[in-house]
Design goal:
The complex is a heterodimer of chains A (about 110) and B (about 110). Chain A is an all-beta fold and about 110 residues long. Chain A has strands spanning about 5, 10-15, 20-25, 30-35, 45-50, 55, 65, 75-80, 85-95, 100-105, 105-110. Chain B is mainly beta and about 110 residues long. Classes of the chains: A mainly beta (about 110), B mainly beta (about 110).
């Protein structure tokens, strides 16, 4: 079965701790994206990658970091510098730049 | 700032009716347009995409694009209670030098009454 997986589904952390969210796809897509969604809000782009070993900042990259060492994987680290990290995090992939995007199930992060 | 605007709703329609969801965008040079459905607490799922002016049909869904008026709409025929969700409009604007950023609207909540 082809698809995008994110883990874990729910994540709880104490303030001041870094946390890494996993995103894996077996769709052979080049492009991958990380979004953040807050209650009642639209999607905001954190980082995106069009190809392995390359990524660009989105609109709200401060306090986040990513890597793209493999085509299948695009992990997101939420650092202690992110002032308001509690949110629903969504990973997506696309078969081409500016193409349709397919989303993983999301990770709901709560930081207290 | 390039924008995508949607009425937040909720849009309430009776079962079996046609639901009409609308979206306007600010960048006249936008090239591709997408509709996603998001159930409460879940991730968005792609419904359809449209690139050319006119209508595109897929089952009970029809996307309509009018680039001159800068709007894109989604019609859902024979609406079912299972269609109750938030519908997100997404647009790829022009001027993508150095970036590939799809812009998402905040979504319209649809409620289909049984």
């Amino acid at each position: 079965d082809g698809g995008i997986t994110q883990s874990p589904k729910y994540l709880f952390r104490k303030e001041g701790q870094n946390v890494t969210l996993s995103c894996e796809q077996n769709l052979n897509h080049d492009a991958m994206y990380w979004y953040r969604q807050d209650p009642g809000q639209g999607l905001r782009l954190i980082y995106y990658s069009q190809i392995v070993n390359d990524f660009q900042k989105g609109d709200i990259a401060e306090g986040y970091s990513v890597s793209r060492e493999k085509k299948e994987s695009f992990p997101l680290t939420v650092t202690s510098a992110q002032k308001n990290p509690t949110a629903f995090y969504l990973c997506a992939s696309s078969p081409r730049p500016l193409g349709e995007q397919y989303f993983g199930p999301g990770t709901r992060l709560t930081v207290t | 700032q390039k924008e995508v605007e949607q009425n937040s709703g909720p849009l309430s329609v009776p079962e079996g009716a046609i639901a009409s969801l609308n979206c306007t965008y600010s960048d006249r040079g936008s090239q591709s347009f997408f509709w996603y459905r998001q159930y409460s607490g879940k991730s968005p799922e792609l419904i359809m995409f449209i690139y050319s002016n006119g209508d595109k049909e897929d089952g009970r869904f029809t996307a309509q694009l009018n680039k001159a008026s800068q709007y894109v709409s989604l019609l859902i025929r024979d609406s079912q209670p299972s269609d109750s969700a938030t519908y997100l409009c997404a647009v790829n604007p022009s001027g993508q030098a150095g970036g590939f950023k799809t812009i998402f609207g905040a979504g319209t909540r649809l409620f289909v009454k049984a």
